[in-house]
Amino acid sequence: MYNISIIGSGNGGRAFAAYLSKKGYKVNLAFRDKRKIKSIYNYKMVQSEGEISGTFKLNLITNNYKKLVEQADIILLVVPAFAHKEIAARIAPYLHDGQIILLNPGRTWGAIEVYNIIKLKRPFLDIHVGETQTLLLTSRAVKDYGVQVLRIKDSTDFCFYSNYPNYDVYHTINEIFPELNPVYDIRITSLNNIGAMIHPATVVLNSGSIHRKQDFLFYREGVIPHISRIIEEIDKKRCMILDALGVKALSFLRWVEEVYNVRAQDFYEAFQKIPPYATIKAPKMLKKRYLTEDVPTGLVPLWSIAQYLNLPTPTIESIINLTDLLLNTEYKRTGRTVRRIGVPLKLLKPKSPIESVNDTLITIL
Amino acid sequence: MYNISIIGSGNGGRAFAAYLSKKGYKVNLAFRDKRKIKSIYNYKMVQSEGEISGTFKLNLITNNYKKLVEQADIILLVVPAFAHKEIAARIAPYLHDGQIILLNPGRTWGAIEVYNIIKLKRPFLDIHVGETQTLLLTSRAVKDYGVQVLRIKDSTDFCFYSNYPNYDVYHTINEIFPELNPVYDIRITSLNNIGAMIHPATVVLNSGSIHRKQDFLFYREGVIPHISRIIEEIDKKRCMILDALGVKALSFLRWVEEVYNVRAQDFYEAFQKIPPYATIKAPKMLKKRYLTEDVPTGLVPLWSIAQYLNLPTPTIESIINLTDLLLNTEYKRTGRTVRRIGVPLKLLKPKSPIESVNDTLITIL
Question: Candidates 3.40.50.720, 3.30.70.270, 3.20.20.70, 3.40.50.150; correct CATH number of B3-190?
């Protein structure tokens, strides 16, 4: 039976704790702010409702990373992507050979960032770092004692970052999470970061009313037709970048079909039709994950790849520029650029024209 | 007594009609939509209140440009700057030697645009084209019969576009408008376009709530502290461009002092303190002059100069890019770029390093 440590005790971390404890694994949970998980801490139990229902025991709940990391076979990071860097540095000293780290999700280049930080500190460590494309469990934290699991997605891609796939590691993850779907190109999990297509543009172009705390439904009313055109342009550029790299892109409209089973003619219609969007309200301040996570770990890496490929992405760059001014940040410099992450250049090699010709030939034949 | 034709019968056009008729000039007024000026048309009179008060006769009110232009000594254009181009082309056939055209205001490069369009069609015509830096008369149209003149500004710059100043022309204008202040560098009237610093950014970053028709005071509530930083950045870049050209810039904060007699520590404070801003409401749709005029005839020319000078202006470019997507326009291409207007390159010559050194020397001596 695996010993699994979960770092992050918000919506996702609690849901994973319930999911794994229910399956009988030894579950350890790390927290940052004890007040927020007081009952979970006191009773060493997570109460879950929804798709997973019951009260589930924890093996350990602590903010002692040493204890948490040393005993774990598998470590799940369930935190905002902007925290991956810091957590990687904090856990690095306690890791040992053969451990598996899975980011839920990695956003763009999460696994590479964590892997490179650990390897810089522990060059000889035999570690496996992977990421999921999105959060497997749609969930909401309930007060200081539990979680509501709204949905267990039926197919979420995951991938480990390495030169050659280690099938044992994939097998272990699928043994624990049969719903996860293995893929063998980290660009598939990293570059289909749909949230980054939608959230920053919508917040920036609604920044006045968000700061004024005017009520509106984030997607249904926030994505006015004009803004949907901006989101469309951003997603089009992402697909163009993926295409230039020879990676099959999952377009936003296709994603809407796959995830929500909604067919839409255009972006605006999609936002009007996706059922859960009917109740999601706008945030009441600008400094929230829609910007603080999705810009540095979503739009910035995309823009940086485009720079590398010499593809102009004026709209993506505009949203980054304005975010940096709105929040007084420097995401364009501090975000996940190709250089800062150390993305191997072979992952950024443009599909050669010869390859394209071959593709065509094969299609014709 | 001069015969003066006014093209444009909105707020400004009506105010000029009252101002000039009161002084005894023969005033002709052109209109576009008869319904909007029905009483003015029927009675051939403009009723004015406020700083100019009374009922004032018109010599002619017509939509016949031929009649209007042929008899005029002076032609005032009092229309949105995006209409200058079309009007220049329409009046060109009827112009004769020695006439004076004054744009109120020109926004950026208005006089050059009009001059070049006319000269292209009538190369041998001896015509004088000038522009004011802002509208001399702050005014509001009143129904279909009149106008309220809120303020006659006490010092508004004007300039004629020519290689050497024709002092007779300046004299004629000052005879009619003693409040106008002659300057002899068209860049002073063209590149201190403050509206373009403020309006587009505020609309773009409030575009969601404007489209949703949520009520807010445009300046007081629309320019949240975060957005004031974006406006500050845009204005800083404008001043940098002017500085690179060796033209003294009027910064926004300085302008606020001069025009409103308000001293502010920062941009946000300025927007909170300027008295008339206390009541100005946000527009209820995006396709309004704050974007349709200020982007193509304010931000685009500035961005284009910066391109020419090789100065990066990412924030200005971001606002242009997003406007083009929001409105489905191509202002970046169709707006007043250096190339499209035909701005003489001598107006864009960077201040030479030698000149700067001399400046320093002089300061030291």
Answer: 3.40.50.720
User: How many C-beta atoms lie closer than 10 Å to residue A38's C-beta?
Assistant: 14
- Predicted confidence at residue A365, as pLDDT, reads 37
Alpha carbons A129 and A215: distance in angstroms, whole number: 41
Tell me what percent of chain B is helix, strand and coil, each rounded to the nearest 5.
50, 15, 35
- A256-281 residue pLDDT tens: 999 889 999 999 999 999 998 999 99
How far apart CA A114 and CA A122 sit, in angstroms, is 12
B202–chain A Cβ distance below 8 A for any pair: yes
Superfamily of domain covering A194-359:
N-(1-d-carboxylethyl)-l-norvaline Dehydrogenase; domain 2 (1.10.1040.10)
- The SS3 assignment for A101 reads strand
Q: How many Å apart are CA B177 and CA B2, to the nearest integer?
A: 12
Question: Which of B209, B286, B321 has its CB closest to that of A206?
Answer: B209
Q: Is A171 exposed, middle or buried (0-12, 13-18, 19+ CB in 10 A)?
A: exposed
Residue partners of B363: CB distance under 8 A and separation at least 6: none
Please give, rounded to a whole number of angstroms, the shortest distance from the CA of B322 to a CA of chain A: 7
User: What residue of A is the nearest CA neighbor of B228?
Assistant: A326
A199, A235, A266, A359: which is the annotated catalytic residue?
A: A199
